[in-house]
């Protein structure tokens, strides 16, 4: 009986805190966020014709030359050929990670060199015009899921997309400018372009 009296307060406190912190608090915060910020609470999903096509917070691996491409991603996932192993799986939201490679890493140098060569091959008009390759098109972000690129990175791709879609460069430059999000209050943050939103607008422009 004495042992039970000693254990009961600990069990009571444990169960009470479990209910408060493990059930009541999460449900309360979820309900409040859905009331105050419903779109953000649902994951900032982007819809086209009523169908969810992605999230404004997570990048996608656009590879077709007719679309704007985002930052490289260092995330990994199960190898389709051998599930016991992992391999590159860009923008895998279940495995957000950076490369952790330093500037002296040969693997990093080799990857960036390959990315530069690929960008030059995909964008010969930009190279011929003397445009520099923006850093964010060859470097990964800390999360590997960055949904945005710099306006310069988008402009670098304009000539390729104009060629692939038979659009004028001016119309594409205007589109990039319209889709560029400016720093909050003019100074907080840097200009950036959401790649998914930009490509959705691009399809609308092309149609």
Question: What can be said about this structure in brief?
Answer:
It contains eight helices and seven strands. It is of the alpha+beta class and about 210 residues long. A hairpin with a 2-residue loop joins strand 3 (about 75-80) and strand 4.
Give an overview of the whole structure.
Helices cover 47% and strands 13% of the residues. The chain is built from eight helices and seven strands, in the order ααββββααβαααββα.
Number of DSSP helical runs: 8
Give the strand order of the largest sheet, numbering strands 1, 2, ... along the chain: 5-7-6
Low-pLDDT parts are none
Instruction: Name the structural class.
Output: alpha+beta
**Average pLDDT for all residues:** 88
Extended strand count: 7
List the helices and strands in order. Answer: HHEEEEHHEHHHEEH
Terminal Cα span: 79 Å
The radius of gyration over CA amounts to 23 Å
Question: Any idea what the shape is?
Answer: elongated
Helix content: 40-55%
Strand content: 5-15%
For the sheet with most strands, the description reads: 3 strands, antiparallel
Features of the shown structure:
8 helices, three-stranded antiparallel sheet, 13% strand, two-stranded antiparallel sheet, elongated, single chain, 207 residues, alpha+beta
Helices and strands in order:
Elements (H helix, E strand, L loop, with lengths): L1 H35 L1 H4 L3 E4 L2 E5 L20 E4 L2 E7 L17 H17 L1 H5 L19 E2 L1 H6 L1 H8 L3 H11 E2 L10 E3 H12 L1
Antiparallel strand pairs: 1-2, 3-4, 5-7, 6-7
């Amino acid at each position: 009986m004495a042992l039970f009296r000693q254990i009961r307060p600990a069990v009571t406190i444990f169960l009470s805190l479990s209910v408060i912190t493990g059930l009541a608090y999460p449900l309360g915060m979820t309900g409040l966020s859905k009331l105050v910020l419903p779109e953000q609470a649902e994951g900032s999903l982007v819809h086209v014709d009523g169908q969810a096509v992605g999230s404004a917070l997570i990048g996608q691996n656009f590879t077709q030359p007719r679309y704007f491409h985002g930052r490289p991603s260092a995330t990994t996932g199960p190898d389709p050929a051998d599930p016991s192993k992992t391999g590159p799986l860009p923008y895998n939201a279940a495995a957000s990670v950076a490369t952790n490679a330093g500037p002296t890493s040969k693997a990093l140098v080799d990857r960036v060199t390959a990315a530069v060569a690929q960008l030059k091959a995909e964008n010969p008009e930009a190279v011929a015009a003397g445009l520099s390759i923006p850093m964010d098109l060859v470097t990964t972000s800390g999360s590997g899921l960055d949904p945005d690129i710099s306006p310069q990175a988008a402009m670098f791709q304009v000539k390729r997309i104009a060629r692939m879609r038979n659009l004028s460069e001016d119309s594409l430059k205007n589109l990039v400018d319209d889709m560029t999000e400016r720093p909050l209050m003019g100074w907080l943050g840097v200009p950036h372009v959401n790649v998914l939103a930009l490509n959705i607008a691009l399809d609308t422009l092309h149609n």
